[in-house]
Amino acid sequence: MQSRHKGAILVLSGPSGAGKSTIINAASSEIGEYYFSISTTTRAPRVGEQNGVDYFFVTKESFEEDIKAGNFLEYAEVHGNYYGTSLKPVREALNEGKLVIFDIDVQGHRLVRAKMNDITTSAFITPPTLKELEQRLRARRTDDESVIVNRIENAKNEINALGEYDFTIINDTVEVSAREFVIVAKAARLKQSKEEEEKFIQTWLG
Amino acid sequence: MQSRHKGAILVLSGPSGAGKSTIINAASSEIGEYYFSISTTTRAPRVGEQNGVDYFFVTKESFEEDIKAGNFLEYAEVHGNYYGTSLKPVREALNEGKLVIFDIDVQGHRLVRAKMNDITTSAFITPPTLKELEQRLRARRTDDESVIVNRIENAKNEINALGEYDFTIINDTVEVSAREFVIVAKAARLKQSKEEEEKFIQTWLG
């Protein structure tokens, strides 16, 4: 989709197992060019995880230097590991007019809103019920019981932040969710920054 | 478009001559069932205006009774005449799951936001420039010079409220504007009320 607008941000949150990646993949041919933001972390890569694909894996020292230099759009420390989003690739993608998609948690969403509210749209993606989430996580057979329990606890907390999001996508069937996601992504692209708006008003008045 | 959601509100504002009706007509086959809210006024009908189509024309007494009874979603007094939106037909349309479209001014938008923010999406529709607006108004040859001057003055004031709207549609060509309008209207339908959200969270937790 072509747009006269500059880039915009689409934040996706929701429990692991909600089907975010599946929905994005199902919708990707219809949402135009986008940049999927890759987080930076100090935690060790898990089996199968690739640097620059799943995360940018860095040392604690390097991460802390970047914090001091103000290089993160948002970051948090979870269980002794840092997770964050570097500003630079986001800025570049925005300047190229791309839609920047984030898969971050409730806290990350708040931080992005605080910094770039005017160009940010957000959606909370969730399975229809907690029970369904639990079933999906177990059916994947990829996680230890302790990881599953932890994810469910997180989900129970995060669901209460639903109201902070522009949209809720209840992922019952991928077809319906992908269709809703396309609408949300296209709407996200129509957002203008305050700066663009002010420039437009000046030009408009002539 | 089918939706599991209850009704939602789409507020359109922007200068007379921006092309709001043209855009809605061009987009109407793609935005699903909607109810176009008809305002109530105490001003006299102009030549060609029909009661129940352009406005509901009522007496000042009747309007003031409805104000006292809390029957208006929003109302204002302009140059000695009242203009307002009755709550009843809006409530009915919302209960039927329809998208309710309002064509109201900046002040009306603020009042709707104040009362029904959670289910409200808004777009400011404007010609690309003030000069273009002036040309369009003159080309219509339907208004007196004093009316045109008044509309231009209003437009100059209202453009500054652009930032209060979720979206800006710069109506350069009807095709592009209608396409953007379809996105905005479909996104508007995805909005959930706080009540629906809370109910969902309760059901979700099980």
Portion of residues in beta strands of chain A equals 15-25%
Residues in helices of chain A, as a percent range: 40-55%
Computed CA radius of gyration of chain A, to the nearest angstrom: 18 Å
Question: Largest interface, counted with CB-CB under 8 A?
Answer: A-B, 30 and 30 residues
State the distance separating the first and last CA atoms of chain A.
29 Å
Class derived from helix and strand content of chain A: alpha/beta
Q: What is the CATH-assigned architecture of chain A?
A: 3-Layer(aba) Sandwich
Shape of chain A: globular
Q: How is the topology of this model organized?
A:
The structure is a homodimer of 206-residue chains.
Chain A: E1 8-13, H1 20-27, E2 34-36, E3 40-41, E4 56-57, H2 60-68, E5 72-78, E6 81-86, H3 87-95, E7 99-103, H4 106-116, E8 120-126, H5 130-140, H6 145-158, E9 167-170, H7 174-189, H8 194-205
Parallel strand pairs in A: 1-7, 1-8, 2-7, 3-4, 8-9
Antiparallel strand pairs in A: 3-6, 5-6
What does this structure look like?
Two copies of one chain form a homodimer. By secondary structure, chain A is an alpha/beta fold. Chain A has one domain: 3-Layer(aba) Sandwich (Rossmann fold), CATH 3.40.50.300. In chain A, 44% of the residues lie in helices and 20% in strands. The first copy, chain A, is built from eight helices and nine strands. Chain A has helices at 20-27, 60-68, 87-95, 106-116, 130-140, 145-158, 174-189, 194-205; strands spanning 8-13, 34-36, 40-41, 56-57, 72-78, 81-86, 99-103, 120-126, 167-170. A five-stranded parallel β-sheet of chain A has the order 2-7-1-8-9, with helices on both faces. In chain A, helix 1 packs across helix 7 and helix 5 runs antiparallel to helix 6 (145-158). Chain A is globular, with a radius of gyration of 18 Å. The two termini of chain A are 29 Å apart. The model of chain A has no long low-confidence stretch (mean pLDDT 93). The interface between A and B is medium-sized, with 30 and 30 residues.
